[in-house]
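hiii, so i know i said id send this last week but things got crazy w the move. better late than never?? heres the sequnce for the chain we talked about at the cafe, plus the structure i predicted for it. fair warning i was half asleep when i ran it
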Amino acid sequence: MGALLFNAGLFQIGWWACVLSPRQPWLLAIVLLCLAVHLRWPGRRGEWRAVLAVTLFGTLLDGALGALGLFAFGLPPAWLILLWALLACTLGHSLAWSARPWWRAAVLGALGAPPAYLGGATLAGVALPLGTLPTLLVLAVVWAFVLPICHRLFTRFAG
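okay and structure toks below
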Protein backbone atom coordinates (compact mmCIF):
# COMPACT_ATOMS: atom_id res chain seq x y z
CA MET A 1 0.00 0.00 0.00
CA GLY A 2 2.84 2.40 0.82
CA ALA A 3 4.45 1.88 -2.59
CA LEU A 4 1.13 2.64 -4.34
CA LEU A 5 0.72 5.88 -2.42
CA PHE A 6 4.35 6.78 -3.12
CA ASN A 7 3.75 6.14 -6.84
CA ALA A 8 0.57 8.24 -6.84
CA GLY A 9 2.36 11.00 -4.94
CA LEU A 10 5.23 11.08 -7.43
CA PHE A 11 2.69 11.37 -10.23
CA GLN A 12 0.90 14.27 -8.54
CA ILE A 13 4.14 16.16 -7.85
CA GLY A 14 5.22 15.55 -11.45
CA TRP A 15 1.83 16.59 -12.87
CA TRP A 16 1.92 19.92 -11.06
CA ALA A 17 5.53 20.52 -12.04
CA CYS A 18 4.72 19.78 -15.69
CA VAL A 19 1.71 22.05 -16.02
CA LEU A 20 3.42 24.90 -14.18
CA SER A 21 6.69 24.55 -16.11
CA PRO A 22 5.77 26.73 -19.10
CA ARG A 23 6.09 29.70 -16.73
CA GLN A 24 8.79 28.12 -14.52
CA PRO A 25 10.94 25.86 -16.75
CA TRP A 26 13.16 24.78 -13.85
CA LEU A 27 10.22 22.68 -12.62
CA LEU A 28 11.01 20.15 -15.36
CA ALA A 29 14.02 19.12 -13.24
CA ILE A 30 11.54 18.01 -10.56
CA VAL A 31 9.67 15.96 -13.16
CA LEU A 32 12.89 14.26 -14.25
CA LEU A 33 13.69 13.54 -10.60
CA CYS A 34 10.22 12.01 -10.09
CA LEU A 35 10.75 9.79 -13.13
CA ALA A 36 14.23 8.75 -11.99
CA VAL A 37 13.00 7.93 -8.48
CA HIS A 38 10.12 5.91 -9.87
CA LEU A 39 12.26 3.92 -12.28
CA ARG A 40 14.70 3.19 -9.46
CA TRP A 41 11.97 2.42 -6.89
CA PRO A 42 9.18 1.18 -7.06
CA GLY A 43 9.72 0.57 -10.78
CA ARG A 44 10.39 -2.97 -11.90
CA ARG A 45 13.31 -4.14 -13.95
CA GLY A 46 12.63 -3.43 -17.62
CA GLU A 47 9.76 -1.06 -16.86
CA TRP A 48 11.59 1.72 -18.69
CA ARG A 49 10.65 0.04 -22.01
CA ALA A 50 6.97 0.26 -21.14
CA VAL A 51 7.34 3.88 -20.04
CA LEU A 52 9.06 4.67 -23.33
CA ALA A 53 6.35 2.90 -25.39
CA VAL A 54 3.46 4.67 -23.63
CA THR A 55 5.27 8.01 -23.84
CA LEU A 56 5.81 7.60 -27.58
CA PHE A 57 2.17 6.57 -28.11
CA GLY A 58 0.88 9.51 -26.05
CA THR A 59 3.16 12.01 -27.74
CA LEU A 60 1.95 10.88 -31.16
CA LEU A 61 -1.66 11.01 -29.98
CA ASP A 62 -1.38 14.53 -28.57
CA GLY A 63 0.50 15.61 -31.69
CA ALA A 64 -2.36 14.27 -33.83
CA LEU A 65 -4.99 15.94 -31.62
CA GLY A 66 -3.04 19.20 -31.86
CA ALA A 67 -2.81 18.88 -35.65
CA LEU A 68 -6.58 18.33 -35.75
CA GLY A 69 -7.08 21.62 -33.90
CA LEU A 70 -8.01 20.33 -30.46
CA PHE A 71 -5.04 22.10 -28.85
CA ALA A 72 -3.16 25.22 -29.88
CA PHE A 73 0.42 24.04 -30.11
CA GLY A 74 2.65 22.82 -32.92
CA LEU A 75 4.64 19.87 -31.68
CA PRO A 76 3.74 18.63 -28.20
CA PRO A 77 5.82 20.60 -25.68
CA ALA A 78 8.36 18.87 -23.43
CA TRP A 79 6.15 19.14 -20.37
CA LEU A 80 3.34 17.25 -22.15
CA ILE A 81 5.70 14.50 -23.27
CA LEU A 82 6.92 14.15 -19.70
CA LEU A 83 3.33 13.94 -18.49
CA TRP A 84 2.94 10.82 -20.63
CA ALA A 85 6.02 9.31 -19.01
CA LEU A 86 4.57 10.09 -15.59
CA LEU A 87 1.26 8.47 -16.52
CA ALA A 88 3.10 5.40 -17.78
CA CYS A 89 4.81 5.09 -14.40
CA THR A 90 1.41 4.67 -12.72
CA LEU A 91 0.08 1.91 -14.99
CA GLY A 92 1.82 -0.97 -13.24
CA HIS A 93 1.38 0.53 -9.79
CA SER A 94 -1.23 3.00 -8.54
CA LEU A 95 -3.42 2.62 -11.65
CA ALA A 96 -2.92 -1.13 -12.04
CA TRP A 97 -6.41 -1.71 -10.58
CA SER A 98 -7.91 -0.13 -13.70
CA ALA A 99 -6.35 -2.60 -16.16
CA ARG A 100 -8.82 -5.48 -15.67
CA PRO A 101 -11.53 -5.67 -16.59
CA TRP A 102 -10.80 -3.33 -19.51
CA TRP A 103 -13.91 -1.25 -18.93
CA ARG A 104 -12.43 0.16 -15.72
CA ALA A 105 -9.70 1.82 -17.75
CA ALA A 106 -12.26 3.00 -20.31
CA VAL A 107 -14.44 4.61 -17.65
CA LEU A 108 -11.48 6.11 -15.80
CA GLY A 109 -10.06 7.48 -19.05
CA ALA A 110 -13.37 8.96 -20.16
CA LEU A 111 -14.09 10.59 -16.80
CA GLY A 112 -10.60 11.42 -15.55
CA ALA A 113 -8.67 12.60 -18.57
CA PRO A 114 -10.89 15.52 -19.70
CA PRO A 115 -10.68 17.44 -16.40
CA ALA A 116 -6.94 16.68 -16.18
CA TYR A 117 -6.46 18.08 -19.70
CA LEU A 118 -8.59 21.12 -18.89
CA GLY A 119 -6.63 21.84 -15.72
CA GLY A 120 -3.33 21.28 -17.49
CA ALA A 121 -4.28 23.45 -20.46
CA THR A 122 -5.48 26.24 -18.18
CA LEU A 123 -2.36 26.24 -16.01
CA ALA A 124 0.05 25.78 -18.93
CA GLY A 125 -1.62 28.40 -21.10
CA VAL A 126 -2.67 26.04 -23.90
CA ALA A 127 -5.69 27.30 -25.83
CA LEU A 128 -8.55 25.01 -26.80
CA PRO A 129 -9.61 26.34 -30.23
CA LEU A 130 -12.80 24.23 -30.42
CA GLY A 131 -13.97 25.56 -27.06
CA THR A 132 -14.08 23.89 -23.67
CA LEU A 133 -17.16 21.67 -23.94
CA PRO A 134 -16.48 20.24 -27.42
CA THR A 135 -12.86 19.59 -26.43
CA LEU A 136 -13.88 17.79 -23.23
CA LEU A 137 -16.40 15.64 -25.10
CA VAL A 138 -13.84 14.64 -27.74
CA LEU A 139 -11.29 13.85 -25.03
CA ALA A 140 -13.81 11.70 -23.14
CA VAL A 141 -14.47 9.56 -26.21
CA VAL A 142 -10.80 9.35 -27.16
CA TRP A 143 -9.65 8.49 -23.65
CA ALA A 144 -12.23 5.74 -23.30
CA PHE A 145 -9.92 3.95 -25.76
CA VAL A 146 -6.57 5.49 -24.84
CA LEU A 147 -6.22 4.27 -21.26
CA PRO A 148 -6.99 0.62 -22.12
CA ILE A 149 -4.48 0.88 -24.98
CA CYS A 150 -1.90 2.33 -22.60
CA HIS A 151 -2.42 -0.60 -20.25
CA ARG A 152 -1.90 -3.06 -23.10
CA LEU A 153 1.26 -1.29 -24.21
CA PHE A 154 2.55 -1.23 -20.66
CA THR A 155 1.90 -4.93 -20.17
CA ARG A 156 3.47 -5.85 -23.50
CA PHE A 157 6.66 -3.85 -23.02
CA ALA A 158 7.17 -4.19 -19.26
CA GLY A 159 8.23 -7.79 -19.79
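btw Helices lie at 2-20, 27-40, 47-67, 78-91, 102-124, 132-158. thought thatd interest u
miss u guys!!
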